[in-house]
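User: Fold this; C-alpha cells only.

Assistant: Input:
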Amino acid sequence: MNNTTKIPNLGLITAVASLGGLLFGFDMAVVSGVLPLVQKQFVLNSVQEGWFVSSALLGCIIGVAGSGELADRFGRRTLLLMSAVLFLVSAAGCAFMPSLSTVIACRLLGGIGIGIASNVVPLYISEIAPANIRGRLVTYYQLALTFGILLAYLTNAGLLNYALANDASQGGTFAWLFIDEVWRGMFGVALIPALLFLVGLLYVPESPRWLQSRHSSGEPQGSYKELLAPGMRKALLIGIFLPLFSQFSGINAIIYYGPSILSDAGLSLSNSLMSQIILGLANMLFTLVAIWKVDSWGRRPLYIFGTIGATVALFLTGLCFYMGATTSLVLLICVLAFLACFAFSIGPLKFVVASEIFPGKIRGRAMAISIMVMWVADTIVGQLTPMLLRNVGTANTFWFFAFFCLIAFIVVYRMLPETKGQSLEQIEEKFVGH
C-alpha cells in the first residue's frame, strides 16, 4: 500500500473500529459504579472484591498476549470481530447471569476482548490511514476510549438515580435490571455499542497492508526474534518506554485523588461520581488537542511539550500538598494542567507511535509487546499508588510521578524521531535501513 492508495468511507471505517476503544473505556470504568452495589448484594470479602475487579485485568493480559500472533496470522479484522463477540457475550452475561461466579467469568471474557482491542484497533487504523492524517485517525481511538469512560460515569449516575427514584415492586425483567439489581443494567448498557461494533465490522475491509504482506512473494513470516535485530532495537525500546511512562506519569494518582481535590478546591459537587464525570469530561476534551495538532505539529513536539508540562504540573501539585494549600484554586489549576498535558500527548500518542514504528510483517506481535507493557505497568502502579500515598505522603507521591515524567521527557527528546506525514514503509526504512 503506498501513499496514494485510497480507502473509501475511511471516516466511517475509523468510527466503527474506534468503537473498540469506546468499549475498552466503558468496560474499565463501569466497575466504579457497579462494585459498591455488587459488594453489598453478595456480601463480598476483600479477596472476592479484588477478584471481581482484577478478573477483567487478567483477561486483558490474556487477550493482548495472544492478539499479536493471531493478528499477524489471521488478519486484523478477524481479531476485531473476535473482540466484538467477546464484548457482546460479556455485556449480556454480566447483565443476565444469576450467580457471582458466572458474572466474574463474563468479566474475564470482556477483559480478553479489551486486551485484543487495545492492540488491534490502533494497529488496524494505522494501516488503513493515509500518511498525512494517520496520527489524527489513530488518536480517534483514544478519544473514543475517553468517551467510553465518560459514558460509563454518566450511565452509572443516571441509572442509579432512576433506581433510587422508582419502586421495583411491579416485578419483571426491566425492574430487575434497572431498579432491583441496577448494577446489571449498568453492565447491560454496553450491549448497544457492542452490537454496533459487531455489525459495523461485518462491512469494513481487511487491512490492505496485512493482505499485501500475506501475498507478497518470498516475504518470510515474521517472528518475535526479529525485534532483537540491531535495526529494530531502537523501535523496540521506544515501544516499551512510551506505554511504561504513560502509566508511571501519575494519571492513576490524579484519578485516585481527583474527587477530593475538586471538592477541596471549592466546587459544589453532590458526590464523588460527579467529580469523576468532570475529570472524565476534561480528559476527553483535552484529547481533542492531540487530534487537532498531531499531524501538523507532529508527534515529537507534542510529546516533548506534554512530558515537560506534566513534570511541572505534578511538581507544583506535590508542592501544594506539601505546603498545605489543598483548598486553593492553584491546586485545581495544577491538576487540570497535568490532565491536559497527559490527554494531548502521553495518553494517546503511545498508540500512534507504537502503531507506526514496526515493520508490517511483525507489527501485530510488536504492538502486543508494547500494549502488554502498558497493562503490566498499569497493574504495578495500581498496587503501588495506595502504598506510596500511605507510606511517603501525598506530596512525595506526586513528586515520584513527576520524576518519571522528567525521565520520559529525556527519553523522548533523545530517542523519538518525527514520523508525521511519512508512510509506514518510509518509517520502516528509517528504523530498519534496508
